[in-house]
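Hi Q.,

Before the meeting this afternoon, I wanted you to have the molybdenum atom prediction in hand. No need to reply - just skim if you have a minute. The sequence and ligand are here:
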Amino acid sequence: MLIKKRTGIEIPSSEITPRHIYLSRRKFMKGAAALAGSSLLAACASPNEELATAVPPSDTGAATTAPLPTTAPSANTDELGDALNSFEEVVNYNNYYEFTTDKEDVAKLAANYPTSPWKVEVGGLVSKPQTFDIEDLRAFELEERIYRLRCVEAWSMVIPWMGFPLAKLLNAVEPTADAKYVRFETVLDKENMPGQKSPWFQWPYVEGLRLDEAMNDLTLMATGLYGEDLLPQSGAPIRLVVPWKYGFKSIKSIVKIDLVDTMPTSLWMDSAPNEYGFYANVNPEVDHPRWSQATERRIGEFGRRETLMFNGYGEQVASLYEGMDLRANY
Ligand SMILES: Nc1nc2c(c(=O)[nH]1)N[C@H]1C(S)=C(S)[C@@H](COP(=O)(O)O)O[C@H]1N2
Ligand SMILES: [Mo]
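Predicted structure with the ligand bound:
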């Protein structure tokens, strides 16, 4: 196993943290960027330590530990021991229908998409509606979250995101007692997003979550990955990441968030209601009408692996669906 970093530093498999060590510190690590080069690093025996020693010391001889590249995530695997996908994989194989339906062309077509200035309007059933400048949102304390992303098309990746729990943002605007769902909207910009001229979809892209799903600690507003701000193809400057649901719920380039009292209709529910439901929880036992969801292809691997219920996050989220028929509520 070889992890390629943008810096060109490669970590031989012999140096990858043994699974039992990683599992003992599986709680999410906060502020990975701030961690780089700090004393905390040594205290938690992060694999970054090994990375640090692999960097040649500076000529002065003064520094015993060279600065870490900001691109280094705090671990090379997720909590299940699955290797991270490389930065190159993550930013060159994307779904982003605003640009094209061809996953390998998104990066090129989105490269010059203007993501600054950017504002996110948060309103609806809240006591304190507020429009946030992207810089205000980047000022939320960022955490690193290594999550599996499982696309409904049955491919998957492991991605080290940077972001903050959506709950923090929602708490800031104070949802009222009537708020039951959260509705998200992607930017509408036909000039710069050629895919939005396609008549097959109702633009802009819309997604939704139940309020308790939105408040779950796993639900992330991501502004970066691999320690860098998001690139356009990944949904810059801010996107949602809901790791126990199929990837299409993780809506990109968000400009509007509304608290509402009725279940929002997503772009996918609108365009193919017989194929896509509101919940879209990863479930190996409920097939897509046109293909099985029992297995998946991890990008970069040969062969297929079994898909896990709730994408492996059942411990954190299964209780949200207690008593619900997950076949009827797909
Ligand atoms: N606005 C918008 N968000 C979107 C999409 C899209 O086409 N437009 N595609 C979704 C799908 S199907 C997936 S699998 C993920 C892919 O995220 P990635 O390209 O960062 O891997 O983004 C989701 N978010
Ligand atoms: Mo997807």
